[in-house]
């Protein structure tokens, strides 16, 4: 990536974390300053912020080590891949039974980020592979990922009242989206009827870990399959989401 887009404070924080990973509780502020070539005043502010965020800990000897937040992030990173593997194993029989593709995604800002997909052997497919992003308000997955959000949280995700309409069926306002979320909460699952892609419908449900929504699963299909498979797909996706959810 071009250097003009780099953030110096993050580069410095990365250098500190890398050093503390290798040698915890060895370095004091003055030694870190000299070793990393960062002024004491700049480093002091950086370390104070990192300590407040629990990225680092400081002991009675004024030396530093990695903090609990770094451990939490690392655990979350590996849990994500555990979830992907669990999804692939559990979604395969759902795909075979429904003969429709099943997706796993998480929320990234105001977008749905697709993590993986168990693809059905059908000639007509919705573009939803790993790395694909779609505005959250235009998908069943987005609705399920935001199912627990209140009006204030939704406003932070969507600062503008007007929402971009991808198709004629896409929800076009934040107020309408909030109303849709209330319906989703009552059902426990969400629907997308040609809102993200014309000609496709889907059902989605949230995956919770320790009560928090961490991802969502969905089954998408061409609209001409929808009426015949709607009820079964709702049942299968809700069951899959429940099996992927844990209290630990």
UniProtKB/TrEMBL annotation:
Q: Which Pfam families match?
A: HTH_IclR, IclR_C
Q: In what residue span(s) does the HTH iclR-type domain sit?
A: 7-68
Concerning InterPro entries, the annotation shows: GAF-like_dom_sf, HTH_MetabolicPath_Reg, Tscrpt_reg_IclR_C, Tscrpt_reg_IclR_N, WH-like_DNA-bd_sf, WH_DNA-bd_sf
Tell me yes or no: is Transcription regulation among this UniProt entry's keywords.
Answer: yes
| Keyword DNA-binding attached | yes
Which keywords accompany this UniProt record? DNA-binding, Transcription, Transcription regulation
Q: SUPFAM superfamilies from the entry?
A: GAF domain-like, Winged helix' DNA-binding domain
Residue ranges constituting the IclR-ED domain according to the UniProt record: 69-248
Query: What PANTHER family does its record include?
Result: HELIX-TURN-HELIX TRANSCRIPTIONAL REGULATOR, ICLR FAMILY, HTH-TYPE TRANSCRIPTIONAL REPRESSOR ALLR
This chain's protein is named IclR family transcriptional regulator
What organism does the UniProt record list as the source? Paenibacillus violae
Its taxonomic path starts at: Bacteria, Bacillati, Bacillota, Bacilli, Bacillales
């Amino acid at each position: 990536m071009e250097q003009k887009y780099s953030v110096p404070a993050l580069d410095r924080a990365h250098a500190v974390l890398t050093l503390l990973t290798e040698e915890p509780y060895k370095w004091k502020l003055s030694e870190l300053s000299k070793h990393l070539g960062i002024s004491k005043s700049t480093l002091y502010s950086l370390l104070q912020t990192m300590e407040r965020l629990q990225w680092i800990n400081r002991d009675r000897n004024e030396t530093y080590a990695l903090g609990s937040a770094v451990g939490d992030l690392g655990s979350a990173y590996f849990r994500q891949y555990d979830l992907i593997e669990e999804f692939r194993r559990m979604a395969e029989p759902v795909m075979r039974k429904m003969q429709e593709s099943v997706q796993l995604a998480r929320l990234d800002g105001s977008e749905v980020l697709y993590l993986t997909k168990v693809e059905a052997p059908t000639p007509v497919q919705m573009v939803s592979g790993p790395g694909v992003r779609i505005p959250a308000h235009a998908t069943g997955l987005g609705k399920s990922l935001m199912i627990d959000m209140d009006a204030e949280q939704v406003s932070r995700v969507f600062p503008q009242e007007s929402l971009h309409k991808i198709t004629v069926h896409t929800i076009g306002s934040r107020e309408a989206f909030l109303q849709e979320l209330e319906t989703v909460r009552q059902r426990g699952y969400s629907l997308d009827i040609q809102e993200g892609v014309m000609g496709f419908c889907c059902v989605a449900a949230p995956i919770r870990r320790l009560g928090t929504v961490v991802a969502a699963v969905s089954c998408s299909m061409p609209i001409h399959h929808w009426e015949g498979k709607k009820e079964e797909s709702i049942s299968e996706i809700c069951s899959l989401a429940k099996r992927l959810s844990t209290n630990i």
